[in-house]
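Exercise 7b. Backbone tokens:
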């Protein structure tokens, strides 16, 4: 691509398969506009591997887009290693599983340049290939800021490719615990396509003009009838943005504390985050192929909320 400027790398998630490159790329944090992307493609500054691609290229999912800039980037954009404590649930020379705390952003973006999981991983694993993609640091999926729980990090290029393939082929099994408003007595499957909200680009919707298949299995684990709430185990078969939150809200069971999709049903006064926790993940280890299950216990804030609801203290209404 020449030496005109620095290269920015964008790792495409598996659930972006089928989307136009320019549409997906323009929606990323700190990304160029679609016109800038088109110009970069025309100048062959947009590549996947060694191949220059068009702005209209249809993504396959799990590939890495390289964008050669025409001018020097602001140095502050490059994530910096930071000595942030991490709770490691599993670690070998190929992968790491981290128990992400609530409030931690996974990837740096505008307004969140520091304190992210990427910053922490770059520090802890500075001398391994985990730093191969500084803006991603080997992280192959994501959790919302206010969702806690298990998240995977690849430590080698081979592990990154293996995990990305498993996400793409849906052989990785993810489990979440979600505390929702409403009594859910039976398990089932929610099969509702999800796409960008027609008027709010930061939200997802089951009524989008353009949507993609999304499937979530759910099973009640505890009925909290005195508080009109249910603790659900949710197993997403697909990996759409905000999938669990959107699906449960669409069924009339918004997650406690969800200020975006709660439609007025939100947290108690002492609980300000969405009650959603990535409790377990199952995967095939990249080298041995051995099936591994990694679990994260329910964090203390959600345990406290559960105790409150068991006593019959209802989750209050969110303003708005």
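Sequence design result:
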């Amino acid at each position: 691509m020449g030496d005109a400027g620095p290269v920015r790398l964008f790792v495409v998630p598996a659930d972006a398969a089928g989307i136009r490159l320019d549409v997906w790329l323009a929606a990323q944090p700190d990304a160029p506009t679609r016109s800038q992307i088109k110009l970069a493609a025309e100048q062959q500054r947009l590549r996947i591997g060694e191949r220059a691609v068009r702005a209209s290229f249809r993504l396959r999912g799990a590939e890495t887009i390289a964008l050669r800039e025409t001018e020097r980037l602001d140095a502050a954009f490059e994530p910096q290693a930071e000595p942030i404590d991490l709770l490691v649930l599993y670690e070998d020379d190929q992968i790491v599983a981290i128990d992400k705390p609530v409030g931690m952003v996974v990837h740096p973006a505008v307004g969140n340049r520091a304190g992210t999981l990427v910053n922490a991983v770059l520090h802890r694993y500075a001398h391994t290939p985990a730093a191969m993609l500084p803006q991603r640091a080997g992280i192959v999926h994501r959790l919302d800021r206010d969702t806690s729980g298990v998240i995977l990090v690849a430590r080698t290029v081979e592990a990154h490719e293996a995990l990305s393939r498993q996400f793409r082929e849906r052989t990785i099994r993810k489990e979440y615990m979600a505390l929702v408003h409403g009594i859910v007595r039976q398990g089932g499957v929610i099969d509702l396509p999800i796409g960008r909200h027609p008027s709010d680009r930061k939200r997802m919707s089951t009524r989008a003009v353009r949507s993609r298949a999304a499937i979530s299995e759910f099973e009640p684990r505890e009925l909290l009838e005195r508080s009109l709430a249910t603790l659900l185990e949710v197993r997403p078969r697909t990996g759409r943005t905000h999938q669990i939150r959107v699906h449960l809200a669409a069924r009339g069971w918004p997650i406690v504390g969800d200020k975006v999709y709660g439609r007025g049903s939100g947290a108690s006064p002492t609980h300000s985050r969405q009650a959603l926790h990535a409790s377990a993940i199952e995967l095939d280890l990249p080298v041995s192929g051995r099936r591994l299950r990694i679990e994260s216990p329910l964090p203390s804030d959600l345990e406290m909320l559960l105790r409150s609801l068991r006593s019959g203290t209802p989750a209050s209404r969110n303003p708005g």
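Instructor comment: The first helix runs from residue 21 to 26. The helical segments are 21-26, 34-42, 117-124, 157-169, 243-250, 300-310.
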